[in-house]
Amino acid sequence: MGKVCEHCKKLKDIMEVAETKPHEYLRIVYDQMYEMYKNKNLKLYFSDCSFEHFFKELCEEKHYTYDIYMQCCECERIFELGVCIRGCPVYKVLDEKPDINKLAGMARMDKKQCYYDED
Ligand SMILES: [Zn+2]
What we know:
It is built from four helices and four strands. By secondary structure, it is of the alpha+beta class.
């Protein structure tokens, strides 16, 4: 994967700051992702919870962890947003695509639903 594209630069910068204040930045990172998703800069690569109703799912606390992987439509970079109900949110910019079958397998083991965007 090459350089981070213009669209991703902003999200990557926000995520870097978010790592230092994980709890405070959860809504900020999510809102940025959501805006980019609505503008079709990002697509949903994989998630084990609803991206659109993410905070609602968190409130329900049916699971201990929630993971969302968004992919840039331009440079194909993957952004991971992971939340652990009793722990700190995790923000990652991945240079390699995670194995979607593996992610789906883990989600199913935890009796979670899997979400993908249609291409
Ligand atoms: Zn990009």
